[in-house]
Amino acid sequence: MTASNALPDPDTGIDRPPPVRFPFERHTWSEIAYLLSNLPFALIGFVYVVATVTTGVGLSVTVIGLPWLVAGLAGARLLGRAERARARALLGVRVDEPSPLGAHTRSRPDGVLGWVWAGLKDPVAWRTMLYAFIRLPWGVLTFTITLVGLFVLWPVLPFVTRGLTNADRSMVRGLLSPSDELERRISELESDRGVVVDTAAADLRRIERDLHDGAQARLVALAMGLGLAKEKLTEDPEAAADMVAEAHGEVKLALQELRELARGIHPAVLTDRGLDAALSAIASRCTVPVTVTVELTERPAEAIEGIAYFTVSELLQNVSKHSGARTAAVEVRRTEERLLIQVRDDGRGGARLDGGTGMSGLAERLGAVDGLFVLDSPVGGPTLITAELPWRRRGTA
């Protein structure tokens, strides 16, 4: 049986096993298999815990005592992973994997002492050790009842196994799941960190490409042109003057490209005057008339302000290229501790996160900073995109 056989409870969202039916169905046989395997798994876990703790305590007077105990705790994490896999395969219990050792601290364990200290404080390993220790009597009980039930309690065995495995489900969720919401949040943030790194790397590659193919190539040509003009200055002043005039035009184009590149990194108008002026400048370049409304009594942190600017910039580019709209509107305001951004247009609609217009990338970027991205774009329009960012005061990290 796989986790797909478990039915999520509509009220709590916790996986519930299918109802018991006669004759025995696959989920019942899976529960029987789980109960019969409880004894060997419980025996292995109990022996491991007792051996690890007694040996670690016994060697605590030596330099290898604590490292031995920490290594045993690290091994307990592997036991917990195996138990979660068994519960997932046979009981349909979906339990998130805990975060790696040290993820609940600001930095990874550094050096031997840091590794020992982090291992001794590891709540995941200690809860797994407790789980393995108390499972032996339960494993003996469930193995015995199930084995006897196969020959004696056949008519009621499905109901007996359901009651026993429900207790197992509770123990797995209570002792082998991540410590709390913080553990799950850490796991999400680790995934989001990868998105941020990938996005930053892509932006750096874009800037490098733009410099190499644009301003840099133009400046190289400009240097060559001025060199030729210098050589002709005494021999053919008129030709040299023409070359200088041409170089002057190249300088203007190079400056324009550099300004556009700098605006793509962080526009000066955003730094100097804030979102209202910066978004109005974006709207003025859109091919569709855009109404901009910014209701902010103070400016958010620089990073949040920059993300908001580039989010609106990309959305308005999509309006210009794909929407077929006649009008569009941008609204920005603060709601409690969130910065709310709404971009709407009266175009043809039908936009999707996987539609190749960069929507999925925007959703990932906002999610990486604990933001939200909601797309409402029925076919025929209108399209409403809502983005939320955490509000941070200016001058804070």
Question: What's the helix and strand layout?
Answer:
Layout lengths: L6 E2 L6 E2 L9 H33 L6 H27 L19 H10 L2 H27 L7 H20 L4 H52 L4 H29 L2 H6 L1 H11 L4 E6 L6 H22 L4 E8 L2 E8 L13 H10 L3 E5 L6 E8 L7
Parallel strand pairs: 3-4
Antiparallel strand pairs: 1-2, 4-5, 5-7, 6-7
Helix pairs in contact: 1-2, 1-4, 1-5, 2-3, 2-4, 2-5, 4-5, 6-7, 6-11, 9-10
Name the helix and strand elements from N-terminus to C-terminus, one letter apiece.
Answer: EEHHHHHHHHHEHEEHEE
Overall, the morphology is: elongated
**How would you name the oligomeric state of the polypeptide chains in this document?**
single chain
Total strand count, please? Answer: 7
Helix content range = 55-70%
Unreliable stretches covering 5 or more consecutive residues: 104-108
N-to-C CA distance: 48 Å
Overall mean pLDDT? 77
Radius of gyration: 32 Å
Count every helix, treating DSSP H or I runs of 4 or more residues as helices.
Answer: 11
Give the number of domains.
3
Q: What is the strand arrangement across the widest sheet?
A: 3-4-5-7-6
Describe the biggest sheet? 5 strands, mixed
Work out the strand percent: 5-15%
Q: Strand pairing plus helix content: what structural class?
A: alpha+beta
Overview in brief:
This protein has 397 residues and is of the alpha+beta class. It has helices spanning 26-58, 65-91, 111-120, 123-149, 157-176, 181-232, 237-265, 268-273, 275-285, 302-323, 359-368; strands at 7-8, 15-16, 290-295, 328-335, 338-345, 372-376, 383-390.
